[in-house]
Specification:
Elements: E1 13-16, H1 24-32, E2 37-38, H2 45-51, E3 59-60, H3 65-72, H4 87-97, E4 100-101, H5 102-117, E5 123-127, H6 135-141, E6 146-151, H7 154-164, H8 172-188, E7 195-199, H9 200-205, H10 207-218, H11 229-236, H12 241-245, H13 263-266, H14 269-278, H15 280-285, H16 299-317
Parallel strand pairs: 1-5, 1-6, 2-5, 6-7
Antiparallel strand pairs: 3-4
Helix pairs in contact: 1-11, 8-14, 14-16
Length: about 325
C-alpha cells in the first residue's frame, strides 16, 4: 500500500516510521542502491539542531558556524562517526559559501557523505524512525522534502524489539501508544503530496511493485539495482558491521518474502492479547487481522497487564525513566 501524489521537484528524502524495527533500514538500503540516491546510516543531528532552536529562519555564518558544527559533531552521537566525514573540510566549504540558510548547511553535510560513498547521486536523504515526529519542523527547513513512512504490524515490531533487547519491551502500553499515533498521523496526512505510506509486509511480498510506486512518488525511474541492495551493502558496508551484528543480519541477504507474521508463532499469547487490546482500532484500520476477538482479557494477559502497571508505578515513584 503506497498512498501518494506526485510533485516534480527532487527534494531530500526522509525515511521514517515513528518506531524502530519497522523496516526503515531495509527501505534505506533499497533506495541507496538507486544510482541517483544517497542516504547515509542513521544519525540524529537534525533533531539536535531543532532542539537547539535552529530553524528555517537560521542563517549560518562566521559567527555561528562552529556552533552548528559542534551540534552536528556532538560527542554523544555514536552514529555520525560511521559516516567518516572530515569536519575541517566541511568547515572550509561552509566558510567559502558565506552566509547561507540552515538548509544549505545541513545539505552540505549530506553531500559530503554522498561525494565519498555515492559520487553519482544527485538526491540526498536521511533514514531515522524518530524524524516522523520532527516532520513539520523539517518541512519548514526543506519545503520540497519528501517523506516515506513505512508501517509494520505492531505485533511483529514488538517481537523484533523483544529479540534485540527484551529488557526494554516490558512497557507494552507505551510501545503500542507510539504505533497508534503513527497510524493516526497516516490518516491525517493521506492527502499530503509530500508524504507516501508503505506497508512493510507489501514491500517484502512485492518489492519491485512497491519500489516502483515509491520511485514514482520521488519522480525517479525505478532501477533493478534497488532489488540488489544486499550486494551493495556487502561491497560498501552501507550498514556498519557493528549494526549488522545488532539485529540487521538480514540486510546482507535478498528480500525475505515471508519475514512477517512471525508474531503468531513466536510471541507469547498474553503479549499478543495485550497488544491487540491496546491497538484494536489501528490494527483494523490498517487491515491487520487480530488473533483475539473477545473483549475480555485472559488470566495470563491480566497478570501481564498488572505487572506492567506495577513496574510503571514503581519507576514513577523512584524517579526513573519510563520507556
Amino acid at each position: 500500500m503506497v498512498s501518494l501524489n506526485n510533485n516534480s521537484q527532487h527534494g531530500p528524502i526522509f525515511v521514517v516510521s515513528g518506531l524502530s524495527r519497522c523496516g526503515t533500514t531495509l527501505l534505506r538500503l533499497m533506495l541507496t542502491a538507486h544510482s541517483r540516491i544517497s542516504i547515509p546510516p542513521e544519525s540524529t543531528f537534525i533533531h539536535r539542531l531543532l532542539q537547539n532552536n535552529l530553524d528555517e529562519r537560521t542563517i549560518i555564518n562566521d559567527s555561528n558556524r562552529q556552533c552548528f558544527l559542534d551540534i552536528v559533531w556532538d560527542e554523544k552521537d555514536l552514529k555520525l562517526p560511521e559516516w567518516r566525514l572530515d569536519r575541517n573540510e566541511i568547515d572550509k566549504k561552509l566558510r567559502a559559501m558565506g552566509e547561507i540558510p540552515l538548509a544549505d548547511a545541513i545539505a552540505e553535510v549530506y553531500w559530503a557523505y554522498a561525494k565519498k560513498c555515492h559520487p553519482d547521486a544527485d538526491v540526498w536523504g536521511d533514514k531515522n524512525p524518530a524524524y516522523l515526529w520532527d516532520m513539520d519542523a523539517i518541512r519548514k527547513i526543506f519545503p520540497d522534502a519528501r517523506f516515506v513512512v513505512i508501517v509494520r504490524d505492531i505485533r511483529d515490531v514488538y517481537l523484533s524489539m523483544f529479540k534485540v533487547n527484551s529488557s526494554n519491551c516490558w512497557n507494552i502500553r507505551n510501545i503500542t501508544n507510539v504505533w497508534n499515533e503513527v497510524i493516526d498521523l497516516i490518516e491525517n496526512s493521506v492527502a499530503d503530496d509530500h508524504v507516501a505510506f508503505l506497508k512493510y509486509e507489501e514491500l517484502l511480498t512485492n518489492p519491485e511493485t512497491e519500489l516502483q510506486k515509491v520511485c514514482d512518488f520521488l519522480n525517479l525511474e525505478f532501477e533493478a539495482s534497488m532489488l540488489q541492495y544486499h550486494t551493495m551493502n556487502k561491497q560498501k558496508e552501507l550498514v556498519p558491521h557493528s549494526r549488522v551484528e545488532w539485529g540487521h543480519q538480514n540486510t546482507l541477504s535478498p528480500v525475505m518474502k515471508n519475514n512477517f507474521n512471525k508474531w503468531a508463532r513466536e510471541l507469547a499469547p498474553e503479549r499478543i492479547e495485550l497488544i491487540e487490546c491496546f491497538s484494536t482500532k489501528q490494527l483494523e484500520r490498517m487491515g491487520y487481522q487480530k488473533q483475539f476477538q473477545g473483549r475480555r482479557l485472559s488470566t495470563n494477559a491480566l497478570i501481564l497487564l498488572m505487572n506492567n502497571f506495577s513496574r510503571l508505578a514503581w519507576m514513577r515513584l523512584t524517579g526513573k525513566n519510563v520507556r
